[in-house]
Structure formats: C-alpha cells, structure tokens
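Re: Re: ligand-bound prediction request (bumping)

Still looking for help on this. To restate: I need the protein modeled with iron/sulfur cluster bound, output as structure tokens. Inputs repeated here so nobody has to scroll up.
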Amino acid sequence: MSAVIPLVPMNPPNKDAGCEAAPVLRERGQREVFCGLTGIVWLHRKIQDAFFLVVGSRTCAHLMQSAAGVMIFAEPRFATAIIDERDLAGLADANEELDRVVRRLLERRPDIKMLFLVGSCPSEVIKLDLSRAAERLSREFLNKVRVLNYSGSGIETTFTQGEDACLAALVPQLPKSDAGAPASLMIVGCLPDIVEDQFARQLRAIGIEHLHFFPPRSSRELPPVGPNTRYLLAQPFLNDTARALDERGAQRLSAPFPFGVEGTTEWLRTAAREFGVSDAAFEQATKLSRERAQKALQSRRELLEGRSIFFFPDSQLELPLARFLSRELGMRLTEVGTPYLHRDHLRHELALLPSGTVLSEGQDVEKQLDRCRAQQPDIVVCGLGLANPLEAEGITTKWAIELVFSPVHGYEQAADLAELFARPLRRKAKLNPEAACS
Ligand code: SF4
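Reply:
Sorry for the wait, this slipped through. Here it is.
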C-alpha cells in the first residue's frame, strides 16, 4: 500500500492517567554509565562493510576489547589508533599520524567501503578535528571509501548515544528520494538481522511494500530519504538521528516502542494507519503472532507478577521496558531512571506508565543507591559497575547491557525479553529456597 492518509492518533494518551505530566527527579551528580564507544560492538555487526577506527587511548582499546569479547571474524572490523604520549605532548602531528594509520589500514583492507573515525576523550582533549580529517581522507580515497566521523567520547556521550551519533553522521549521506516516488516507511535503529527480517515480513503482510531499514546491512544500500519518507524509531535513544532525518524532510510516526506485545502492536498499527491499512486488515495480519506471544508470556507472568523492579539510568530503554514489565507482566515499578528523557519521543510510553511511577533523569549515584537500598526491590537493572556491589548486598541484578545486545524487539522476542528478568529471580530462588520466589 502506498497511499498516504493523515495520521490518526493512536489511542490518544489519557490526560488523567499515566506519567505524561508526572514530576521527574533530575540529578546531575556522578554517574556510572559506559561511554558511546560501546555502540561499536553492535554497529560493526550491522553494517558489514564498515570499519570503526577509534582515535583514542589504551583505555578505549581495552574497553572495546572487553565489551566485544573475542573477534569471531577473520578480519576485525574495528580497531583503536592509539594516541600516545608524543601526540598528547604535541611532539607529533596527530593529523599526519592518523592519515598514516588510515592509509595503512585501507591498503591492507580493500573490503572496507565505509570508515568511521570515532572520537574519544583523548582525541577531544588534544582537540583533534576528526570532521576535517574525515573530509581530507574522503577526498584522498574518493570513490573508494566513504570516511565519516562521530564522537563516542565519555565526555559527550553515554552508552547508546554512540549509535545515535553514528547514525546521525550517516543521515547526510543518504540519497535524496525521488519527488514522485510513493511514500515509503523507514525503520530506524540497529536491529539484529533476525528481528529485522521478522519486522519486514510483518510489515509486508500488513500491506506496507515500500520499506527500508536504517542503518542498512551494507554501506552500498543506503536508503533514500525525503518528504515522502515516514519513519518509525525502533530504539528510544535516537534523538540526533531523528533530528537529522527531520531536516531531510522525513516525517516521524509517533508510537510506543516495539517491546512486548502491546508495544509491538501499537508500533505496527501506527505504520498501518499511516499507510491506509484498515483496522480489520491489521487485526487479521497480526492476530496469530499476537496470540502466540501472549501465550508465551504467561509462564513468565506467573513468576514476575507483583515483583518490584528498580531501574538505574543506563541504556535509555528504561521507560519502554518499565511499561512492558508493569502492564504485561504485572511488575511493580519502584523507580525508573533514564540518562535522558526525550518527552516527545517517549510521549506514548509516559502515558502508558502507571500514574505515580517515580521517574528520574540523570544520576547522582550515591543518592540513587540509597534510594534503591531503602526500596529493597526484587530486581535491579543497572550497569556492570553497580551490579557486583549490589549483588554482594544480596540484591538481584540484571545488566542493562544485556538488554541492548540481545534480540528483544517484536512479538517473537517478547517472551525472551521477559525471560531476561525472570532468570535472575529463578536463580536466586534456587540458591536461596527460602526467598519468596515461586
Ligand atoms: Fe574511557 Fe573516554 Fe575512551 Fe570511553 S572514550 S573508554 S570514557 S577514555
């Protein structure tokens, strides 16, 4: 279907309920979050002919190594150009050094078609201008390699913001869509290939034919963009990317995020309505998947219902996950922290959260730890740095990073997503049968 009808607002948020107007505790103290370099771990798997060259220190290289684990590729797709003492002391020309490293890399690796120069804290400290370096190297390797840059530095970005910065840098490279082309749908955000394939099948079954995913699997398949592009965010942390797409004339479809049965249904329904698919046709196309997913959730609900959960701010997935856990699994939300709260992108999520949910934005880690201890939640979602100390205090934790690395979107993954929370509780019950866990 290519006809475009005006967007019918999906179940308009209820002003009397939810958390749309709820107060948010804003904290700007010490925070415990990964930097944006972490995004390379999933980005390099997605864009399969791209290479990520971190311009950083040995610390950055260690982070990448430990976050990504052992490289399973014959040739790695990311590396760190180490800024050493000579660069830091201004004794060497860091631009010349960088050009030399890039030349050597591209000579050895003709398979690289897109190269990202990724800024870090050290490259910022020595004020290395990576956008000029990218322009210079793009000219040198014209028609062979596209060289782009973005920052993954811990000064500027947290964890999932690295993906946002990378995709925002890629948007200006997208070809302009033909003015007369039919309206198309773009799904925005890195998804595991298996999830992308499932969404493609579902959207086509609903009747949406003109469909693109961004980022693409190959740098040679950049999707076109223009005023006839409608896009749905698949991830809640893509604020700069959305702004860049808006500047290219694309229109964002506002929806909850596709986590759990409800989120997935409303996300797909938003696209269906925009593309003129009748409610009856939509219901029929999604009925089986919905029912299967609901059934699969049942056994997890028996374990999770009534359990309390506390979210430390980390991945920016916190609000949609909290909505899923409370509405579909009956969990109690003690505090939902997020690094940033984009009210517009999260409008539907806020409206769907139970009213009275404690929301916090940013972090003052010691104060938040005190609040968490006072609540004694059944499970805490947090970064790796907080998990061990909390476990040592007897509090069950779930690593936020796992929620970003695992396939968790869509109907087929709804039960797996619930299982990520059920498993630690089950494990605790086995270790301590007296704990109140069935
Ligand atoms: Fe550490 Fe900054 Fe490098 Fe990230 S970019 S690993 S925060 S030095």
